[in-house]
Amino acid sequence: MTITCIIRYEIDPFQRDAFKKYAENWGRIIPRCGGHLVGYFLPHEGTSYVAWGLIAFESLAAYEAYRARLKADPEARENLEMARSKRIILREERNFIEVVDGTFGLPSKLAGVKESHAYTN
Length: 121
What we know:
Strand order of the largest sheet: 2-3-1-4
Helix content: 25-40%
Radius of gyration: 16 Å
Distance between the termini: 27 Å
Order of helices and strands: EHEEHHE
Structural class: alpha+beta
Number of strands: 4
Shape: globular
């Protein structure tokens, strides 16, 4: 993937479970519309009102095509409306980033650390 859209959400911390459901819904929608879902991330410790979503694309043109498909997708529209009506998301920022070669997805060199579980709770 060439670029990643990183979405920073300010969420209502009292609606953490509702945001989790919102994010889980994107797990079906985003791949269907052409995005490579890296993942959604909820606050675990520290700040309770910031969450992130990361979606990768081959190019900005691929992102634009994805956005058009997203707007036409009934489940995507329904998910957005649910978040709006419940006021789960207070603010949203989008930035486009690129990975620095040789720095992403490197496994831990420590003995006993499982690669697939290194970032789970």
